[in-house]
Each structure stands twice: as C-alpha cells, then as structure tokens.
C-alpha cells in the first residue's frame, strides 16, 4: 500500500494553486461551451498535455449548502449523474479526507468507466468557501476500471454581491482520463460534463 502524504502541506499547496488559477486573466481563456446555467472556458494545462477548464455560473442558494453538495459526503452521490460510487478511505482533521470514487462511461462508452482516488480539502475563501482536490497514486485499481488522475481541481463558492441568497460558483478542473482516448472526445465530454454539473446541482438544491 502506498503511503499517504502529509495532509497539512498538501492542503496548503493545493489551496495556493487554486488561488493562482483563480487569478488567471480573462484574456487567457477561450469559451468551450455556454448554456443557460454556466459558461465553460479552457486553456492549455501547465500540469499535463490536456486542458485546464474553468466553469462559472450563479446558483440560487447560500454558499455552505452548495459546498455541502459538492464536497465528499452523503449529498454528492444523490445528484451527480456522473458519479457512480464514493467511499471515504481516510479522514484527516481540518476538513481533509481521501476518497475513492467511480464515474460512469461517457460518449456511448467511448470513455469507459473511470476510478479516481483524490485528496480533498475544504477551507474558507473570502466570504465563502473553496473545496479542492488532487488525485493520489494510492490503493489498488478495481477491475473493469481505468484509473484517472485529477490534477489540482477546485470549486470557489462566494455570495453574489448584492444578492446574499445567490452564490457565484467557479470551478477549475483538469482531469487526465488516461487510457487510449482521442483528445477531441475528451474535450467534448469535459465541456458537457461541467455544464451538466451546474444544471444537476441546481435541481438538487431546489
């Protein structure tokens, strides 16, 4: 069994990386998809050969309730159509845990089901919250799954100025699906998945 990393320095590094992404100027992003619920942009990732995606939309609810639905916990499986199982493998203090989850096949199963083991950390950010994660090479891969890898990812959720019952939710996602996949299929799937994430989340919060 691989050793788990020390949670405190990993959490700090992850938070700093996400704040850095949050400061990337608008001019570096290109729109990948736009729906009534969210806009998705992308730019080449500095972590791997794919893209870093940015998604943003307004969600009608308070930040704590939204983040409770996104971070590892009982709500996530109820509404996230892509996630098929989730187990919390280890829990650290300060809102840190290691979770293993699986995702459904996508694009008529061109993208087969995936498994991820992620370190997850939730912390305060401005007047709201940041919940972020990164994959670990930890534990054996289950049969019939390809082990994917999430480079630093996260969701910033802050109250919308002037509308305290609404929140601005901004996500940064860079997932390496691994396996033999055409990059165009991955890009199509990622943009759609992120847009659907917002519509599914809004339905769950009603």
TrEMBL record:
Molecular function per GO: cholesterol binding; cholesterol transfer activity
Family matches, as InterPro entries: StAR-like, StarD4, START-like_dom_sf, START_lipid-bd_dom
Nucleus listed as a keyword: no
Residues covered by the START domain: 29-206
Family annotation (Gene3D superfamilies): 3.30.530.20
A Gene Ontology BP annotation from the UniProt entry: cholesterol import
A Pfam match: START
GO cellular component: cytosol; endoplasmic reticulum
Entries under PROSITE patterns matching the protein: START
Keyword Flavoprotein: no
UniProt keyword annotations, A-Z: Lipid-binding
Protein name: StAR-related lipid transfer protein 4
Native species: Leptosomus discolor (Madagascar cuckoo roller)
């Amino acid at each position: 069994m691989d050793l788990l990393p020390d949670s405190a320095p990993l959490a700090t590094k992850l938070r700093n990386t996400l704040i850095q992404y949050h400061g990337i100027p608008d001019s570096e992003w290109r729109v990948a998809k736009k729906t009534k619920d969210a806009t998705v942009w992308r730019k080449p990732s500095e972590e791997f050969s794919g893209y870093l995606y940015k998604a943003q939309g307004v969600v009608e609810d308070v930040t704590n309730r939204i983040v409770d639905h996104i971070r590892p916990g009982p709500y996530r499986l109820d509404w996230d159509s892509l996630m098929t199982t989730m187990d919390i493998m280890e829990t650290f203090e300060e809102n840190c845990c290691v979770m293993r989850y699986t995702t459904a096949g996508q694009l008529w199963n061109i993208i087969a089901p995936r498994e991820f083991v992620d370190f997850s950390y939730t912390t305060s950010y401005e007047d709201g919250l940041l919940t972020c994660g990164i994959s670990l090479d930890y534990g054996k891969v289950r049969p019939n799954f390809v082990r994917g890898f999430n480079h630093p990812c996260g969701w910033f959720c802050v109250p919308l100025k002037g509308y305290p019952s609404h929140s601005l939710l901004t996500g940064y996602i860079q997932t390496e699906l691994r396996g033999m996949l055409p990059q165009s299929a991955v890009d199509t799937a990622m943009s759609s998945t992120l847009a659907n994430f917002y519509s599914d989340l809004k339905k769950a919060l009603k």
